[in-house]
Q: What sequence folds into this?
């Protein structure tokens, strides 16, 4: 192999994309309106106005774009709204993931509580809930919060498409040489110097 072929192969960089959360990921992680209503009824929690949250957040983004319209060009507006919408979607996705973990913990605690041979998981003193009941209630609260943030994300994504004229997609950041630490890079430079 020639020296130029070898050096050009070594200098090529591995570029990966770091993908952000998408609206589909949010929809998979967060409860929909029907599930949120069931959670509210089962746990005595307030029923969320899903459509109201979506409409309000859609209106907020449209009003924001209208107020900035004269000061920003099309591309600047698109970048600005991309960041705003991305933060809403990322927040909803994080809430959905936390909700999923809370449900898993509640299931585990409830299953342990069903085992009659364990004293540690029995109901608490009179007037106090069991640990499993507290975990179920916590998961229900997280489900309602995740649903509310899902609705907000859906509203801002709809507004983005209305203002910009194209569907919102998560920003994909290029990451060069992922997983390479400073020590590893330093070792490579030192080894290259040694020949």
A:
């Amino acid at each position: 192999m020639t020296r130029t072929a070898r050096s050009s192969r070594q200098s090529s960089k591995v570029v990966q994309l770091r993908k952000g959360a998408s609206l589909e990921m949010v929809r998979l992680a967060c409860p929909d309106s029907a599930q949120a209503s069931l959670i509210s009824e089962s746990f005595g929690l307030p029923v969320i106005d899903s459509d109201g949250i979506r409409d309000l957040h859609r209106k907020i983004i449209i009003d924001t774009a209208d107020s900035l319209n004269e000061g920003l060009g099309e591309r600047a507006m698109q970048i600005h709204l991309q960041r705003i919408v991305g933060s809403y979607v990322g927040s909803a996705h994080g809430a959905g993931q936390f909700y999923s973990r809370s449900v898993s913990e509640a299931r585990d605690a409830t299953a342990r509580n069903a085992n009659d041979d364990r004293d540690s998981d029995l109901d608490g003193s009179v007037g106090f809930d069991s640990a499993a009941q507290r975990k179920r209630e916590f998961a229900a609260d997280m489900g309602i919060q995740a649903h509310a943030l899902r609705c907000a994300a859906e509203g801002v994504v709809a507004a983005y498409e209305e203002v910009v004229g194209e569907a919102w997609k998560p920003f994909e950041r290029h990451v060069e040489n992922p997983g390479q630490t400073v020590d590893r890079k330093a070792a490579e430079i030192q080894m290259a110097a040694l020949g």
